Structures are given as structure tokens and as C-alpha cells.
Amino acid sequence: MKTKKILATVFAVILLVSCKDYKNEPVMENGNPPGQVTNITHVDYPGSSVITYDLPDDKDLLYIKAVYTLNTGVVREIKSSYYTNTMTLDGFGNAGNYPVALYSVNKSGVVSQPVITTISPMDSPIWDVFESVSVQNDFSGFYVTADNPTGEILAFEMLLKDEFGTWQSIEGFETKLTKVSRSRRGFTDYERDYHIRLTVRDRHMNYTDYKEYTVNPLVEKMLNKGKFAALSLATDTPRHSALSGNVASMWDNNYAPNGGYRWFTDAFDLLRGDDEMVTTFDLGVLVKLSRITIFNWGAPGASPADGKMYYYDEHLHKFELYGMVSPPTGGAANSWTFLGAFENIKPSGLPYGEETAYDKEMAVLGFEYAIPPEYSEHIRYLQLRVKETWSGTPMKHYGIAEIDVYGNEI
User: Which CATH code, of 3.40.50.720, 3.20.20.30, 2.60.120.260, 3.40.50.2300, is assigned to 222-409?
Assistant: First the structure.
């Protein structure tokens, strides 16, 4: 027992001594400034420059630091480890000559005297994007198109002049698509001229100038489903005889049907040469389409715990729309006009068979698909070509609970 007490006392003393006066300090103290970088060169790009240099011969070197000031007045600091001899300096909105201070920093945090070099980045990509912007009339609003060849994340910010002549901020959008096409809806005073200002901003808070536009929204309304009529073309996929109503089940205003009250096709058949599942119907009027909304019926999950599933099994994942003015005499013939290719996106991005409460909430509200303005045509007959369901390829069936169609009747 006495031996155990002695050992415990010794251990406590060692622990106390080891903890006393401990500081989080560099492993190696070196108060000498490291050498400077040499042979500095740079290549200039839109909104940025890439500089290359020779590192100092200093075994204690930790990193190189570049400090420079943007045209917005913001001071930026970029660091690059001693494993590389290059760094990218970005954030510039306008072309010009910008001084850069390059510092060497050692493992003790000691900084060298700066080496000053000058870089000459070109105008930010926002300016070319800004020049390509077009704003045109759209259904219940307007749509914006632009080219963004570099694929940078850009924000399109907008102002609207109110009835008192004051410019008010309205919701814009952010995108990194190389081909920008975005609609802004909700402007339903069709007798009014709407005055819009638009600017483009990058992630470094560089802004372009404003462009001003006058837009006259196109009239949009939901089509009268009482005028819809079924068609049965030779290339259409037949309905499932046991589990489906007729094709008119898609427009019976039953948004949450069970079993046979939905539109549900027969089995997809690769042996028959199927590469898509097709449904065609008559809208009853000549119309310039703006958008459609599709409602899934809520398929039973793989287990009772899954509940109703909306990104599952028979539901549309990828499809195309086609239209025609005159009564069709053939199915998927070349006489059909392409209206757009669409994909159903699960908001959560979870794997197949997994859905959040928010996923289901969005599904119940319906999936809206806007007809790209460049494909919007006057049509009367609408054809849906399903390329892939959520069950994957080859598909089994496809099903729709309800479809709403919007546009401007002639």
C-alpha cells in the first residue's frame, strides 16, 4: 500500500510540472526574416492574374503572402504554401495596373520585407456578360438571357420603378450557367409598362453599370380543362387496364387520387422497340404555351415506414414536350415542334428511395416546368414523351395525377 501511495505522489508531481508554464509556441524559434521571392512573372486574365516566382532558399520558409487592393478599395490577402511557386490573384472588376506586395513568412511567423510587383488584369467577365444581356417580354413578366462563357457564379440584380417614379429592389437571381435564361413572373397588370433596371455582380462585389428596359408582360392564364380531349395515336403508350383511368384522368381536377383515378400507362416494352413512353391530347384551343404543372399521385413506398413517395418508381424524371397546330396524323413524326426537355429535381438531392418532408411538401404543390421562350410556339395538340422515370431505365410505367397548362389563347 505504501508503494502505491509513493507512485501516486510521484505521478502527480510529474503531471503538475509538465502542465506548468506550457505555452502554444512554435516548435522552432527563428527571429531572422526569410529571404524574398525573385524572378516574378505574371499572366493576366479577365478579373485575375496568375503570378509565378522563385522561392527563397530558406529551409524555415512556411508560405508566401500577396497583399493588394482591388478597385473597390477592398484589401485582399492571398497565401500560398512553400510547396508551390504560383498563386492566383483575383477579384478585380476593372482593367488596370495594380501593385502587389509579396512577403515571405517563416515557421516562426517572421515576415520578410515586401517585394513590389505590378500586375495588369483585364476587365472582369461581368462586363462581357453584361453586354450580352437581353430582357424580353414573357408571360406575366419578362425573361433575361445572357452568355456567361467562364461559368462564374454571377448575380443578376434588378430594380423596378414604382408608380411614384421610385426605383425599388426586386428579386433577382444567381447562376453559374454558361447560357443564362431566367423568367421573372408575377406582373399581371397587362396594361402597364414596367421599367426595369438590371446590373450584374460577381462574388467579389464588383458591379457593372445598369441597363434599363421597358417590358410589357404577355397575358397568361390557366387553360380551361373542359376543352381538353383525349387522342389515341398509333405511337402512344396504352393505359394500364387494371390500374389506370383513361387519359382524361390527367385533367379531372383530382390532384391527390388513389389507384385507378390517375393516368397510368401500360408497361414499357424494350422488345417492342420502345425508347420512350408517349401520351398525346388536344388542348381544344390554339395557344402559345408558357408552362405546365404536373402533380404526382404519391406512390406507396417500399415499406410502410416510407409513406407516400413522390420521386419514386413510375413518376416522371426526364421528359420532353412537343406541340402541333393541325390534327396529328402520326405519332412521334418530325412534324411535331419541340417545346423543351425537362427534368424533375428532388430538392434534397437524397438518393433514390429517400425523401424528406420538404421534398414531399414541394411535390404536393406540383412540379412547374416553364417552356423556354425560344421554343414557345402556337400549338393546339400537346405530346408528352417520357424518357426516364424515377425507377430508372428501362422504365416500367409512368403515372400522372393531374396536369395544369398555362399560356395565352389566340
Answer: 2.60.120.260
